[in-house]
Amino acid sequence: MKKLIAGNWKMNGSVEMTQGLLAAINGEINGDLLDKCEFLVFPPALYVADALKSAGTNIDVGVQDCSLHESGAYTGEISVSMIADMDASHVLLGHSERRQYHHETDEQVCAKAKLAYDNKLVAVICIGETKGQRESGKAFEVVERQLMASVPESASAANTVIAYEPVWAIGTGKTASATDVAEMHSFIRNKLAERFSDSKNFYILYGGSMKPENAEELLATPHVNGGLIGGASLKAEQFLAIAKAAP
Questions:
Q1: Closest to 84 in 3D by CA, of 59, 121, 41
Q2: Residue 26, pLDDT score
Q3: Of the listed 97, 104, 129, 165, which one is catalytic?
Q4: How confident is the model at residue 46 (pLDDT cuts 50, 70, 90)?
Q5: Which of 28, 37, 57, 155 is such that its CA lies 20 to 30 A from the CA of 138?
Q6: Are 42 and 9 in contact (CB under 8 A)?
Q7: Is the overall model pTM greater than 0.85, yes or no?
Q8: pLDDT tens column, 94-145
């Protein structure tokens, strides 16, 4: 299984940055990297069209969220059919910032994932515990609840990617230890096996402050099939360094 190197740009960027960043990444993607990695970026929705033009054939482009509704009077929202119409391939769902700031529930994430499947999109579903939940010994309980409630029964390795993002490690510079990551990713894999016959083929990404300095160790950790990268995805040299660190 190749490693999936995914960049979540969050609310950062411009037309110039989108074009320049993707051109720089494309300029360094060669046969060796493509043999071991797949690439995916999630720019802000306004720049998806520019990203698709600049991404070429080696970088997939997704959207950072979608609406619970297919169409209608929902000002400011973006439907899955619109995402598919633009030829984007993935949609990022349940990111901790959506859960925290927009109070998204597991049930809403699950409903969005079903809409994504109906429109032939791959859902990248985020799960993960807060600092308080980990310190109180509830990390595995929280992750299991989110995994069970956010991932539809119709999920498969072909239409779903799981991203484990310990909330306390996002944008803080802190990173879970390789031991912690191995334990959680193994736990997630086992829980997937209880529900899905193709569980061994699901991508499980690590999404907590992955950067060039820790990428080699994290990407070599069992059941870590890639990274959902935040800040380091905004600089071509850092994003590429993470990919090059993949075993």
A1: 121
A2: 94
A3: 165
A4: very high
A5: 155
A6: yes
A7: yes
A8: 999 999 999 999 999 999 999 999 999 999 999 999 989 998 999 999 999 9
- The active-site residue, picked from 95, 97, 129, 185, is 95
| Per-residue b or e along 86-118, where b marks 16 or more CB atoms closer than 10 Å to that residue's CB | bebbbbbbbbbbbbeeeebebebbbbbbebbbe
β partners of residue 163: 126, 205
Residue 165 catalytic?
A: yes
- What residue type is 194 in one-letter code? E
pLDDT band (50, 70, 90) for residue 208? confident
The predicted structure's pLDDT at residue 169: 80
Q: Select, from the ranges 26-30, 54-58, 150-154, the one with the highest average predicted confidence (pLDDT).
A: 150-154
* Domain layout of the chain by residue ranges: 3-195+208-244
Q: Helix/strand/coil (H, E, C) string of the chain?
A: CCEEEEEECCCCCCHHHHHHHHHHHHHHCCHHHHHHEEEEEECCHHHHHHHHHHHCCCEEEEECCCCCCCCCCCCCCCCHHHHHHCCCCEEEECCHHHHHHCCCCHHHHHHHHHHHHHCCCEEEEEECCCHHHHHCCCHHHHHHHHHHHHCCCCCCCCCEEEEECCHHHCCCCCCCCHHHHHHHHHHHHHHHHCCCCCHHHCEEEECCCCCHHHHHHHHCCCCCCEEEECHHHHCHHHHHHHHHCCC
pLDDT beyond 90 at 173 = no
3-195+208-244 — its CATH code? 3.20.20.70
